[in-house]
Write a structure and sequence with these properties.
By secondary structure, this protein is an alpha/beta fold. It folds into 2 domains: about 180 residues, Rossmann fold, CATH 3.40.50; about 150 residues, N-(1-d-carboxylethyl)-l-norvaline Dehydrogenase, domain 2, CATH 1.10.1040. The protein contains 15 helices and 10 strands. Strands 3-2-1-4-5-8-9-10 form an 8-stranded mixed beta sheet, with helices on both faces. The longest helix is centred in the middle third of the chain and has 23 residues. The chain starts with 6 loop residues before the first strand and ends with a helix. The model has no long low-confidence stretch (mean pLDDT about 95). Its EC number is 1.1.1.94. It is found in: Cytoplasm.
Length: about 325
């Protein structure tokens, strides 16, 4: 069977559902692993995901569902990871087979705590997956817009550019235009940081700062991102490319951004716990904020916007005072 072979999606949420829609535009059949058997049963009864993007209808004859992660891996050649980063470890701990001979596509825009490892680094160190057998999905690609078949421009990054091109062909259809890159670490780091900055953007929105201020905030955030990514992963890149800047912009401004929504709740006075309960979905940036802070203990990059978000979320510092300090001393 030619690359990428039989594909399986890992995850039962919004992003996994959008990825399944994309894959089925190219593939005749996919496998799909969901942790909860009752979600699979409800899916089979209704023809759509009962909890997420329920407007997207699926031909069930083209999907084999699994609640057994080991069987799903054994029956597949390429694994698409679309679970929240804090839960990746708990999923993989149930696995009783090797990933070393599989091709892994990480669509996880987060970092693995508490090791503070990028997903690709985690898979290489703990599951012996070669960098040549891993790709990531970056760039501006909200699941809700994919469900609506609005034009979407992801970036597929892999150390093996030929494999990146092959995966891009799987993604491409009349509403998805995938580009390729070999900057795996840089795009992964940017994906973590843009969630943190989207929380900052949401906090400022919740505090009723206007569009003019938001523009200055995001301009400073992209400079921060460039400093951090270039020091942690020093290769030549254009931070203005959509895999970096585009993903930052859509996550900071879109009404579909759960990180921005989470931040807006904090800005309006919600506690972190209350905002998490009301959201009902994971805001990756909450976890990414702590991971970035801890990673930066080694590099000491100047990242005042990310540091502000950390103090608000983890040290209970008042949001209005933190933003006041930021705008008076740092933003320009």
């Amino acid at each position: 069977m030619s690359f990428p072979g039989k594909i399986t999606i890992f995850g039962g949420g919004t992003w996994a559902t959008a990825l399944a829609k994309i894959m089925l535009n190219h593939e005749k059949h996919i496998n799909w692993y969901m942790r909860r058997p009752e979600q699979i049963e409800d899916f089979k009864k209704t023809g759509h995901n009962p909890s997420y993007l329920s407007n997207v209808e699926f031909n069930l004859d083209r999907i084999t569902f699994y609640s057994d992660i080991t069987q799903a891996v054994e029956d597949s050649d390429t694994i698409v990871l679309a679970v929240p980063s804090p839960f990746l470890k708990s999923h993989l701990e149930k696995l009783n087979t090797s990933l070393a001979n599989k091709f892994i596509i990480s669509a996880i825009k987060g970092i693995v705590p508490p090791e503070n490892l990028l997903v690709t680094d985690y898979l290489e160190q703990y599951y012996n997956v070669s960098p040549q057998n891993m790709a990531i999905v970056g760039g501006p690609c909200h699941a809700e817009e994919i469900a609506l078949e609005r034009l979407t421009y992801p970036t597929i990054a892999c150390a093996d550019i030929q494999k990146a091109n092959a995966i891009a062909q799987v993604f491409n259809n009349r509403f998805v235009r995938a580009s390729v890159s070999n900057d795996v670490a840089g795009i992964e780091l940017a994906a973590v940081l843009k969630n943190v900055y989207a929380i900052a953007s949401g906090i400022c929105h919740g505090l009723k700062y206007g569009d003019n201020f938001q523009a200055v905030l995001v301009s400073n955030a992209i400079s921060e991102m460039e400093r951090f990514v270039d020091i942690v992963s020093p290769i030549e890149r254009r931070i203005q490319d959509s895999a970096y800047l585009g993903d930052l912009l859509v996550t900071c401004y879109s009404s579909f951004s759960r990180n921005r929504t989470f931040g807006a709740m904090i800005g309006k006075g919600y506690s972190v716990k209350a905002a998490q309960v009301e959201m009902e979905m994971i805001a990756e940036g909450y976890y990414g904020t702590k991971c970035v802070r801890e990673i930066n203990e080694k590099y000491n990059v100047d990242i005042p916007v990310a540091d502000m978000v950390y103090r608000i979320l983890y040290e209970n510092s008042p949001a209005h005072l933190e933003v006041k300090t930021l705008r008076e001393q740092i933003l320009k």
